[in-house]
Each structure stands twice: as structure tokens, then as C-alpha cells.
Amino acid sequence: MTVIxxxxxxxxxxxxxxxxxxxxxxRVWRVWEDPRRLERWWGPPTWPATFQQHDFKAGGRAAYxxxxxxxxKAHGWWRFTAIDAPxxxxxxxxxxxxxxxxxxxxxxxHCAVTLEADGDGTRMTTVSSFDTLAELEKVIEMGMEExxxxxxxxxxxxxxxxx
Length: 163
Fold this sequence. Notes:
Belongs to the AHA1 family. By secondary structure, the protein is of the alpha+beta class. It has one domain: Alpha-D-Glucose-1,6-Bisphosphate, Chain A, domain 4 (2-Layer Sandwich), CATH 3.30.530.20. About 25% of the residues lie in helices and about 40% in strands. β5 and β6 form a beta hairpin. The two termini are about 20 Å apart.
């Protein structure tokens, strides 16, 4: 299985997911950099993503929506805060309304993704940080941990096609 571990730390207010892929770091990096690849895995398999904007640079923004099995759309946004290709990116991840406007009722998640060479593959660590325990618990109840695990599990198929 691609995802090695998932750990919720209520003291540190983080959710950490570690995955390993049988591909070099630069190829795994492309699943973040290229919006067409990104939308093939961001979100659980039954909620595919469509990226309408993906300005992949520090200070840049992404806008997307995921479409559920019944056609329901869930909108989100990112603001890239740091990009150090091909090893690290950081961004703020938030929920949005149907017009793409950030939702004030939902938490903003601070994400840090690290890609490291690991033998003949890549180890990807995704740390999602929250401002409060209530925010962490809210997204866990919404299924974030399972959703992220399922989402990252789809990356292997994309990497296999790129060989």
C-alpha cells in the first residue's frame, strides 16, 4: 500500500500522512506541479477534483472543486506560501462557496509537503496543521484522514502511466 502511516496528534494539532512511491522525487513532484495530474488524485476516488486555477508559485493561488457521486460540488482554494522544487511545498488549504470565495465558517489548514529520496523511490510526508483542536476534530469528523489516505493512494497509478 502506498500510504505507510497516518497519525493525528491532538497536542501538536497536526495530521501527518506518510506515503512511499516507486518513482524518483522529480516524478512525484509533477503530481503537485501539473494541475491535470493533480486533479486525477486530489480528493477521494468518488470525489474527483477539477482545478480551475493553479498558479504554482509562492504567493500563487489554486481554485478547485470536487464532484461527488450525486453531482454535489465541494469547492476549495489553496494559497501557496513556499515552493522549493522538487522537495517541498507549503500552502494554505481552505473551503470555499460555489463562487470560490473562502468560507469563514470552515478552518484553514496549513499544509507542508516534503518529498525525499528513499532508496529507489520517494517518501512523501504531508503535515496538515490546525490553529485549534476544534478545527482538527471538525475535519477529522468530516473524513479528512480517510479521504487524504484514499487520495494519495491514487498517485501510484498516475506514476505508472508516466513511465
